[in-house]
Amino acid sequence: MDRYLDLCEERRLDEAGAILTEDARLVFPGGVEYRDLAAMVADARTRYRWARKPVRDYVVAPGEAPGRSIVICRGTLTGEWLDGSPFSGVRFVDIFVLRGDRIAEQHVYNDLAVVAAMDTANHHEDTLETAP
User: Fold this and answer.
1) Which of 25, 48, 35 lies closest to 110, judged by CA?
2) Per residue, what are the HEC states of 45-67?
3) DSSP state letters, 11-55
4) For residue 56, which of 75, 84, 112, 126 sits 20 to 30 Å off, Cα-Cα?
């Protein structure tokens, strides 16, 4: 999983895509689903400049069907919003369903939307003028 995540972060999408099954599903917060990495990256560019997962822990479990396994990756995200301001320590959990040695599904859960809303609210409070 580290190799796949590293390749995605480095935007080496052809190499990362070779780790996916042909019918892979990439499901992101809000139930947004992608069938390829290029579409996922294009959509991500509307929310942040870049993001990394520098802190990762894994749990591996057998899947329900023979030849399948589940990998749970949890950690924190670091990155940069579109306005250039940084974010870090944002919680995430990725659940991977493997078919053999390839990724058939990736389900992504994170607090980016919550952090973005808090950053916006804090920025708004910082810019409010108070009456004399």
Assistant:
1) 48
2) CCCEEEEEEEEEEEEEEECCCCC
3) T-HHHHHTTEEEEEEEEEGGGEEESSHHHHHHHHTTTEEEEEEEE
4) 84
SS3 68: strand
Q: At residue 43, what are phi and psi to the nearest 5 degrees? A: -70, -40
Summarised one tens digit per residue, pLDDT across range 22-57 is: 999 999 999 999 999 999 999 999 999 999 999 999
Burial of 48 per CB tally in 10 Å (0-12, 13-18, 19+): middle
Strand partners, 95: 72, 107
Measure CA 121 to chain center. 23
CA distance 35 to 24: 6
pLDDT, tens digit, 9 for 90 and up, residues 79-108: 999 999 999 999 999 999 999 999 999 999
